[in-house]
Amino acid sequence: MENTAKLDHSEVMDIDTYFKRLVQPETPAALWRWEDIVTVMDGMEADPKRYPTYRRAVCLVNNSWAGAPGASPALFAGFQRFRPGEHLPPHKHNSVALYYWVQGKGHAIVNGTKIHFKQGDVLTCPAWNEHEFFNDGDEDLIMFSIHDLPILAQMRALFWEEPMGQENIQHIVKSEAASWSAQESENDVANLKSILIKTAA
Q1: Are strands 76-82 and 141-147 parallel, antiparallel or unpaired?
Q2: Could you give the CA distance from residue 116 to residue 91 in angstroms, rounded to a whole number?
Q3: Do residues 102 and 41 make contact, with C-beta atoms less than 8 angstroms apart?
Q4: Among 172, 201, 195, which Cα is nearest to 59's?
Q5: Residue 61: its pLDDT value, please?
Q6: Band of residue 172 on the pLDDT scale cut at 50, 70, 90
Q7: How far apart are CA 168 and CA 90, in angstroms?
Q8: Rounded to an integer, what distance in angstroms lies between the CA atom of residue 96 and that of residue 131?
């Protein structure tokens, strides 16, 4: 039996109608308190089996618009904490990433090149470059990252590969995997509870 697509979502319109629909509401400023960020990071630290290094990320979300979540409509911002000796396994994504180290020291391997960093340093990782991080110090490593994830998601053009391997490449247009890692099953993450804090004024 032939499958026929429903096309009742298609429209042809004049340019004035189009431009009126194109205008998006203004995005208000947002503020995230450091103590709230630390509270969420601490909540993950309390259960390391549920939150291994690759899932221990705190995302800053401004809920003032519909669509892909982010700190702004185009940018993701978040923090990730690595304990001494921990390693974030190799992965890649087609979002460009900017990494700033708030605390600690370590090294990254980006497409086979070893790069040492310390508190205050900034590293950019180009799109679709394999990369991984190591905490080489004796204190927690805290990384602040900025990506263009939301705009890629809104364009239906976001891909990531974690763990490495062609079989783990995900095109993020539907929930094809249970989590960020393509090898986790629904059972692995079924009982994970959200850790959410609304920052107080």
Answers
A1: antiparallel
A2: 18
A3: no
A4: 195
A5: 96
A6: confident
A7: 12
A8: 12
Report the pLDDT value the prediction gives residue 181, as an integer from 0 to 100: 67
Strand order in the sheet with 105-110: 113-118, 105-110, 131-135, 87-93, 159-161, 169-171
55-111: pLDDT as tens digits? 889 999 999 999 899 999 999 999 999 999 999 999 999 999 999 999 999 999 999
In order of 37, 46, 66, 130, 159, the CA distances from 165 in angstroms are 32, 31, 33, 11, 13
Tell me the range of 35-39, 172-176, 183-187 where mean pLDDT is highest: 35-39
Measured distance between the N- and C-terminal CA atoms of the chain, rounded to whole angstroms: 58
- Cα separations in angstroms, 164 against 115, 128, 130: 20, 11, 8
**In terms of Cα–Cα distance, which of 177, 162, 155, 170 is closest to 68?**
155
* Contact indicator for 159, 172 with CB cutoff of 8 Å: yes
pTM summary value: 0.86
Helix (H) or strand (E) holding 43: helix 34-45
Cβ(163)–Cβ(183) under 8 Å? yes
CB-based contact 146:140 (threshold 8 Å): no
Q: What is the mean pLDDT of residues 31-41?
A: 94
Residue 193's SS3 state is: coil
